[in-house]
Amino acid sequence: MQTTENKGLVIFFYVCIAVFSVICLVPFVLAVSGSLSTESRIAAEGYSFWPRGFTFETYQFLFGSKAEQILRAYAMSLFVTVLGTLTAVLVTTAYAYVISVKGFRLKNFFAFFAYFTMLFSGGTLPWYLLSTKYYHLGDTLLGLFIPYVLSVFLMFLMANYFRSIPHEIVESAQIDGAGHLRIFFSIMIPLGRVGLVTISLFYALQFWNDFYLPLMLVTDQELYTIQYLMYNMMANIQFLASGNAAQVGGAIIAPPLETAKMAMTCLTVLPIAILYPFLQGFFVKGIIVGSVKG
Amino acid sequence: MIKKKGWLSLLLATVFLVSGCSQGNNESATPGNTDSNSGTGTAPATAGGSEGTALAPAKLKIVLYGDESNRMKELAKTEFYDVVKKEINAEVEFQFLPWTEYGGGKTDLMLSTGEDFATYTDANYMVKSVAKGLYTDLTPYIPAAADLSATVDEASFRAFQLDGKQYAVPVGNKPNSAEFYSVLVRQDLLEEAGMTQVTSLAELEQFYDKAHALHPELIGYANTDARRMLQYDFTDKNLYWQNDFIALDESAKDDQIISWFESPEFKTYAGLMHGWYKKGIIPKYAATNVPQLQSDWNSGKAMFWAGTAARPFEGAATISQAVPEAKLVNYFLGTGRPKISRGTYSTAFFVSAAAKDPERYVMFFNLLQKNQELYDLFAYGIEGTDYTLDANGRLTKINTDSLIPDWLLMNKNFMRFDNTVPDDFIADYKAWDDGAIISKGAGFNFDNTPVKNEETKLNGVFTEYLAPIGSGFSDYDSAYPKALERLKAAGIDKYIAEYQKQFSAWYAKQQ
Amino acid sequence: MTQEATPGTPGQLVPAKRTVSARRFRKSLRKDSSLYLLALPGIIILILFAYLPMSGLILVFKNYNFNDGIFGSPWAGFANFEFFFSSMEDALRATRNTVMLNALYMLTGTFFSVAIAIILNELRSKWFIKITQSVMFFPYFISWIIIGAILFSLLDYDKGILNQLLQSLGLAQMDWYSSPWLFVVILVLANIWKSAGYGAIIYYAVLQGVDTSYYEAARIDGASRWQIITKITIPMLIPSIILMTLLGIGGMLKGDLSMIMGVTFLNPLLLPTTDIIDVYVYRTAIRSGEFGFASAITLYQSVFGFILVLVANKLAGWYDKDSKLF
């Protein structure tokens, strides 16, 4: 009796997840097919699962003479993502450990100190003023990730993972005379691998997706990231398509507005979609290693 | 308690640090201002002979919006740099920002933190920024733009003055009267429907009916605003809109402003639009997806649009990708009312308040419209490398990369046409402004400080209640009472009174 | 500050507390010095990029102009708040809509994220988990503009897929874009679709960290799958659910402008339910270029969220002292 009931439940579970996954996949397929369609047919007939009038025109328009710049922007994004994630994970886990130490009298203060910044912000003007005039982050590599190396949300998430590590392990280490630094590096980090891998993944995505820091702090094209480059191109295409830019003089290129949106989604999401299973392999392995040790 | 003290001292430290910052900022701005004052003294001496030998070296940063093309990047370091250096002894640097940062965003941040640069603006953004002290008053330096002043219309200069002070230098000179007062018709469809021209609203609707019968998949009008093209039917006045709320009657020689939404004309107009909406001339989805209308037009799925002088040829290229035989012609739905112009400028350049040498910036703007050679260089690049000219002076681009945006510089004294544009279009285009009048409100800039709250709230009422009535999505009779009640609650009366007061005072001074 | 009055502190100790705590503080400073060291990089980042810029908050009470700078500009008092609170009807509606939508997002989002995590935890096929987990994460990357465009092709009155479906079933077409309450459902569904996969990863990671011996013991005791889920899995997730809720509650009054713009195109007919604070500020203050007004309302959103968090944190403390945020 019991096993059949369980079997039914398990099949139900598989079906639920499968259906939801398919629904999640739909827009992605539409985006890929949209980016390979002709602009006029998309505008007239809407999106479809199969490209309408299969063409690479949109990609040709986007890449144009910019192939080299796009490649460089990909490299810059990758570099910033790796460097940013490493720094961020270190800063975040250290802070998270501090607020998760049992009996540390200032842990609530530090937790509050961080949380407060999630709610209140002084707006972009003072932030911009300080970052450019006083920290001199304009047109620097540091400016592309340093302001974002402590996400308070992920810090609390990490502290939550740390708290779930059995307290006895920490206590026995303390009895052995281990200080906080040793406990943090040789116990908490290995045991908190599950959380560590999770926040690394989220940080990596945050740095990959960010276009705000380059928008604010970068003018040098060498430092453009792929998201910023795409943001810039999209804003320009929207302006051209709005009909405000009268171009009576030269040859007019009609920008492919709809298909470009789709192509840009593909260009920025695709690398992640391809890398994700690998990242996830790392992620799952981390979880397994973490849980075995736990 | 310890926690509390720590907290407080931190906050205090914060305040001191940043107040230190802002003072430092002021100090850096002040010497800049004195510099520029001493520059004023020399202005008359240098303005005449603008060959840059006597000038001290200067650095200029010009911000442009859009995507920097490879060719622009090259030229900015070579020919553009060299020619500016030679002409006005300045090292020019171009910085590109995304269009989203125009009139706000990063532009605002750069201005507020005292960066030294110049870029372009519009009257709205200018009024707001001048109120915050973000622009340099360019009045003393205008003599340095003597060549530009000769090729740019006088009324365009007035559009960028506040209290008699020049805060931005207009660039461009092109026919742009009666913007959106004409109907841009797909002539190919019109002829297919057995008609030759459109001269009235009745004929336009007749065109829709016939074309709809032939092509039921097409929509009629690819926009949600037709107040200008339809004015020949809902009023005898010659209306010109100052903003969403206020119109002027250009046929009356008085200083009376019209509260558009409270006028009987609005009622008639809303009725016409509601008819269009019910009939399907404006599609049902227009209430939601306005960008789709633009796509429809661009892909040849609409019968008519609002016209401007340049649209027959600039729009044709877009549509012809989808419909190669498409042909566009402008029609007015009535006659006997002069075309109204706001001035013939394309845009206007301002200089940031912290600029060390505002005069040199003005000299740079002067170069943009100085003569044919410089215009060709900035707009099209180098002949033979970037473009060629045929015997008629028609342009063929070799390289499609855009340089300093074409639309920005466009000046009828210098501009060149692509060799695909038919001669009759060019003739029509050049004659477009003949008989046009400058709006009696041109050059008036409303100071909204006394009614900031009212204006902000009115914008909320407009987007929620009045825009749908004006576009015909809601029925005037049932929706208007509520909308009017909201308008009154938001302070329309106070707003109109303040506007009238300022306009009358300004108008009296003009006479 | 709120932690000062920890329940159970005997009253008679208060007079002696200061000197003792000062001495203890110095001692603990030495003992915990390595903790301060660990927190230091984070503290520096918070001070540089959050606390120092926070001085800009005083701009909300000022009429900023460039020549006088941040501190020299004249005071404006509460003038920047006036436009919002003087049209009380709009302010209340915007606040209500924001809270309503956020509460719905939070409830449904948490439910689906947790449910997915639990289900994934029950499945054994590794490749299936791997693929579906990746796929469910995709929507998180797709911008609201694209989602809005796709929804439009579903919901359009004439050409929309849903209405064509309704017609083929012999039913009347629905005018989706003029039904404000129906759109609440659509927004909630869109939100679940976009963020459930992301949330599920957080909860799933927690479950992966759970000691497997709990499950084995339960299975040996003959517990059914359902019992294991309700008796072991869900209790394991409770602290994380509380944490995520507390973190979310501070943003209760902050709405996602890009979502409403992308999905509803700011259709006026939908505003009765979709006019959240950020949308209202966008179509009034930002449209008129009054950015001072906009930052004033941001402060209102923060203060309101702060009060909510303080209350919620207290409540969480009553439930379990360890699940407090601070």
Automatic annotation (TrEMBL), chain A:
Membrane topology: Multi-pass membrane protein
Every ABC transmembrane type-1 domain range: 74-276
Record key words, sorted: Cell membrane, Membrane, Transmembrane, Transmembrane helix, Transport
Chief subcellular location: membrane
InterPro entries: MetI-like, MetI-like_sf
Matches recorded under CDD domains: TM_PBP2 (cd06261)
PROSITE patterns from the UniProt entry: ABC_TM1 (PS50928)
Transmembrane stretches, start-end: 12-32, 73-97, 109-129, 141-162, 183-208, 266-288
Domain of life: Bacteria
Subcellular location: Cell membrane
SUPFAM superfamilies reported for this sequence: MetI-like (SSF161098)
Family classification: Belongs to the binding-protein-dependent transport system permease family.
Identification of the protein by name: Carbohydrate ABC transporter permease
Source species of the chain: Paenibacillus tritici
Lineage: Bacteria, Bacillati, Bacillota, Bacilli, Bacillales
UniProtKB/TrEMBL annotation, chain B:
Region (Disordered): 25-51
Chain intervals with Polar residues compositional bias: 25-38
Pfam families tied to this protein: DUF3502
Source superkingdom: Bacteria
PANTHER family associated with the record: ABC TRANSPORTER SOLUTE BINDING PROTEIN-SUGAR TRANSPORT (PTHR43649:SF17), ARABINOSE-BINDING PROTEIN-RELATED (PTHR43649)
UniProt KW keywords: Signal
Protein name: DUF3502 domain-containing protein
Species classification: Bacteria, Bacillati, Bacillota, Bacilli, Bacillales
Coiled-coil spans in chain: none
Signal peptide residues on this chain, from the entry's feature table: 1-24
Domain DUF3502 per the UniProt entry, residue ranges: 442-508
Compositional bias of kind Low complexity: 39-51
Automatic annotation (TrEMBL), chain C:
Topology of this chain in the membrane: Multi-pass membrane protein
Pfam families in UniProt: BPD_transp_1
Compartments where located: Cell membrane
Principal cellular location given in the protein's record: membrane
Coiled-coil region list: none
UniProt entry keywords in alphabetical sequence: Cell membrane, Membrane, Transmembrane, Transmembrane helix, Transport
Transmembrane helix keyword on record: yes
Entry keyword annotation includes Cell membrane: yes
Transmembrane segments: 35-61, 103-123, 135-155, 181-207, 228-253, 259-281, 293-312
Domain ABC transmembrane type-1: 95-312
SUPFAM superfamilies: MetI-like
Family: Belongs to the binding-protein-dependent transport system permease family.
The protein's name in its UniProt record: Sugar ABC transporter permease
Source organism per UniProt: Paenibacillus tritici
